[in-house]
């Protein structure tokens, strides 16, 4: 718990260092990111959701521009993303979506069927609507793996909240999408960090 709180404070008070980003000219105040999350594995989801929001706020997104919706399970994520992006107003307003869920393998083939279909359909929806959808679904063999990948096991050397990466990827892709729409492929533009930000290491 102390580790999680320290990590939260580091995100709140220390802006992320972004490689090759001109922070003086890149305005993210009007960027909107939608997070659609599942209801299963609530403890894990809540921590993923918390740190995705903290990371987006650290990147100077306004709180009112971080939109949150929920669906029952991962299987409903593609439908939800497609429904949102099929609405012309929402398609225009939203810059990127983070589809967030947790799948933990059980004793049947259910895990494989869901993981494969959800990943494929999210990619199809993203391409269909030409809108970035970040695959934020943890696909883990055990609950212990899910805890590590959601930053909830500070005793593990691999402990890291992947929602931090998803949030940064959403902003990165949203900015790239804006540039592509303006026929701007200049190599002088930013790319977000390719290495871990030390302040966010679990």
Automatic annotation (TrEMBL):
It catalyses: (2S)-2-hydroxy-3-oxobutyl phosphate + 5-amino-6-(D-ribitylamino)uracil = 6,7-dimethyl-8-(1-D-ribityl)lumazine + phosphate + 2 H2O + H(+). Pathway: Cofactor biosynthesis; riboflavin biosynthesis; riboflavin from 2-hydroxy-3-oxobutyl phosphate and 5-amino-6-(D-ribitylamino)uracil: step 1/2. Keywords: Riboflavin biosynthesis, Transferase. InterPro entries: LS, LS/RS, LS/RS_sf. GO terms for cellular component: mitochondrial intermembrane space; riboflavin synthase complex. CDD domains: Lumazine_synthase-I. Its EC number is 2.5.1.78. It is an enzyme of class 2 (transferase). It holds the Pfam family DMRL_synthase. GO terms for biological process: riboflavin biosynthetic process. GO terms for molecular function: 6,7-dimethyl-8-ribityllumazine synthase activity. Belongs to the DMRL synthase family. Catalyzes the formation of 6,7-dimethyl-8-ribityllumazine by condensation of 5-amino-6-(D-ribitylamino)uracil with 3,4-dihydroxy-2-butanone 4-phosphate. This is the penultimate step in the biosynthesis of riboflavin. HAMAP family: Lumazine_synth (MF_00178). This is 6,7-dimethyl-8-ribityllumazine synthase. It comes from Puccinia graminis f. sp. tritici.
């Amino acid at each position: 718990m102390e580790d999680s709180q320290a990590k939260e404070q580091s995100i709140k008070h220390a802006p992320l260092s972004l490689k090759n980003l001109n922070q003086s000219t890149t305005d993210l105040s009007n960027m909107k990111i939608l997070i659609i999350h599942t209801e299963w594995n609530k403890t894990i989801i809540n921590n993923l959701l918390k740190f995705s929001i903290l990371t987006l706020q650290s990147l100077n997104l306004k709180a009112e521009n971080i939109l949150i919706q929920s669906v029952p399970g991962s299987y409903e994520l593609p439908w939800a993303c497609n429904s949102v992006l099929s609405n012309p107003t929402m398609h225009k307003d939203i810059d990127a979506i983070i589809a967030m869920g947790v799948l933990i393998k059980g004793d049947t083939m259910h895990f494989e069927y869901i993981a494969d279909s959800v990943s494929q359909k999210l990619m199809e929806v993203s391409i269909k609507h030409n809108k970035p959808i970040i695959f934020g679904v943890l696909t883990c063999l055990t609950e212990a793996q899910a805890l590590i990948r959601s930053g909830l096991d500070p005793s593990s050397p691999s402990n890291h909240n992947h929602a931090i990466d998803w949030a940064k990827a959403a902003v990165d892709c949203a900015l790239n999408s804006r540039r592509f729409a303006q026929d701007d492929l200049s190599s002088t533009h930013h790319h977000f960090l390719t290495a871990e930000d030390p302040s966010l290491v679990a």
